[in-house]
Design a protein that fits this description.
Blueprint lengths: L1 E7 L12 H10 L5 E9 L10 H8 L4 E10 L2 E9 L3 E8 L14 E9 L2 E9 L5 H23 L18 E6 L7 H6 L4 E3 H5 L25 E6 H4 L2 E6 L11 E5 L2
Length: 270
């Protein structure tokens, strides 16, 4: 099995108001072994958040044996804020994608980013992409989804028509269309943006693993101050069809209040 965890950790801030990255690590481990761990809302060197801690380095120290890749959406030296991917699988390639941020002056918004890592799994090379889409603007989410889908089309086209091999840096390295896209997508199952994302080639892993069952609450299950609407789903795994056929399990930890989001763990058959 290859297991992948995705979690918006809210910079380690639990529903009790305490910032505790060690607690985050304990929850992840309690869910079971994972070859890949994807975290959203990780901060570095911001004096306004977590006392200016370098959370990427601190989380990495809590997971010895994992390589870590940090992708800042916001980078205003020395401050960074973005996504973190940790893996104990061999890393073949890494891509950092900035997502669109169209002008929209009447709302607040920030630059968003997606990390893409090509990993060597027992079933062959696999792309894992983790991202955190804009919260405040449906327009931003829509164009960010368009960009993610365009990137997927580009990768698939290059796999179908691979470039001519040559010596480094043009040497061929696997980058398959097969992908696991995960993260806090800030959309609900009934939203137009959900329908825009989850059409071919993407499959919703929850509906693959639990057909006919409603999505579980991944946000607001415990934090009713930020989420007065209560528990609802805005965190997902999106898979290409070949990867979806390998789904063995997808579970959500509905008990932890170590963040305002719940962690998800996907298992893929090798």
């Amino acid at each position: 099995m290859t297991a992948i965890v995705s979690w918006n950790i809210q910079c380690g801030k639990g529903c009790d108001g305490a910032v505790d990255l060690a607690r985050i690590a304990r929850v992840v481990r309690a869910m079971g072994e994972a070859e890949v761990i994807c975290m959203q809302e990780v901060t570095r060197n911001d004096p306004e958040i977590a006392g200016g801690a370098d959370q990427a380095t601190e989380v990495a120290a809590l997971f010895p044996g994992y390589r870590w890749i940090f992708g800042p959406g916001l980078e205003r030296p020395p401050r960074q804020f973005g996504n973190l991917l940790l893996t104990r699988l061999p890393v073949l390639q890494v891509f950092v994608h900035l997502l669109p941020q169209p002008a929209e002056g009447d709302i607040k918004h920030m630059q968003r980013q997606a990390i893409e890592a090509v990993l060597a799994t027992r079933a062959g090379p696999l792309r894992v992409v983790t991202t955190h889409l804009e919260y405040y603007s449906a327009r931003h989410r829509a164009v960010q989804i368009e960009r993610l889908r365009a990137l997927q089309d580009e990768v698939a086209a290059n796999e179908a028509r691979p470039p001519k091999p040559a010596a480094s840096p043009y040497d061929p390295t696997p980058r398959p269309a097969s992908v696991v896209l995960c993260g806090d997508l800030n959309l609900l199952p009934g939203d137009a943006e959900y329908r825009a994302l989850f059409q071919a080639p993407f499959v919703d892993a929850w509906r693959q693993a639990h057909p006919g069952e409603p999505h579980p609450p991944t946000t607001g299950a415990f934090d009713r101050e930020q989420w007065p609407m209560g528990g609802h789903c805005r965190d997902y795994f999106a898979l290409t069809a070949d990867v979806a056929r390998r789904v063995a399990a997808l579970e959500v930890d509905l008990d932890t209040d170590a963040s305002d989001h719940q962690p998800l763990r996907l298992e893929l058959r090798d």
